[in-house]
Every structure is written in C-alpha cells, then in structure tokens.
Design a protein that fits this description.
With about 170 residues, the chain is α/β, with parallel strands linked by helices. It is built from 7 helices and 7 strands; from the N terminus they run ββαααβββαβααβα. A 4-stranded parallel beta sheet has the order 3-2-6-7. It is globular, with a radius of gyration of 15 Å.
Amino acid sequence: MPPPRLQGLPPVAGPWTRLLVLGSFPSRASLQAQQYYAHPRNQFWPLLSALFEMDLVALPYADRLAAVCERGLGIWDVYAACEREGSLDAAITDARPNDLRGLVAGLPQLRAIAHNGGESARLMRLTAGLVPDSYRLPSTSPANASWSFARKLEAWREVFARHALI
C-alpha cells in the first residue's frame, strides 16, 4: 500500500512580509492540528519567542500568527503536497512544490527567504532568484538534535537582525 497523499497548509504572509521562512512540509502533528510547527518538541515557536522577546508558545495559534506577521515574518513550506509515512523529511516522496513564485509576486516588501532545514534548502535553486537574499537555517525539528537551542538561536538571530525583524 503506498503512503498517503498529504496536502500542506496555506501560507501565512501578507504585503508587509519582509522575510519568509520555508519549511519542507508539515509534520503529522501539524497536519492534524492544522497549525504550523505544532509538534511540542519542534523549536520553531520557542526560537521565535526568544527572538521577539515574547512568549508566543503561550498564545492561541491565531494570535501567534498575528504577532509574527506584525513583525514582517511569513511562514510556508516548499512542498504543497507529498506522500509520506510518519513525519521525517527523509520519508517524503512524490512531492509537488508550492507556487513560491506566485506567493512572492504578491509580497512587495519581501527581501529574503530563509529555509528551515536541509530538505527545504534543497529547493534553494528555485527560491534564490525570487528575492535578493536566501539562507539555509538549522532545522527547528526535533530530529535536528546535533544543534543546541542556543546555536540554532544564534543562526536564526543573525538572519532576523539582518532583515530588521528584531
């Protein structure tokens, strides 16, 4: 039996977005919750909490999204759909990319794309020409245990500061 065909989440972005963070594809927990980075061990929301100096984790999801959008951050994934058992990027097959060009066309203030992890960064060849700056950030996934929280935070801080989000 083939793995299930999964559909991703819609983008969180608007005309004020200056930096777009692209993950690979939502985890099983994120798809079930219909929320980006819903797995309790994913460090995305704790990292943003540290960067923005506010407890995003304690906020209802809609308020989290509003808070990051107000600061010029957008969130999406490189893949719109794929087949996958479990949540690991290594298990992604038959992936269909999101319409990144279409999204970027509607974001007049966008200056940079930051790829959250290696699988997302594999598509840098598609995003590099869309904006002036593209980055590969260390993954916030619990599978990326080789980087400490502090080391991830420093890498993310550098990109967010460069684009005046903090």
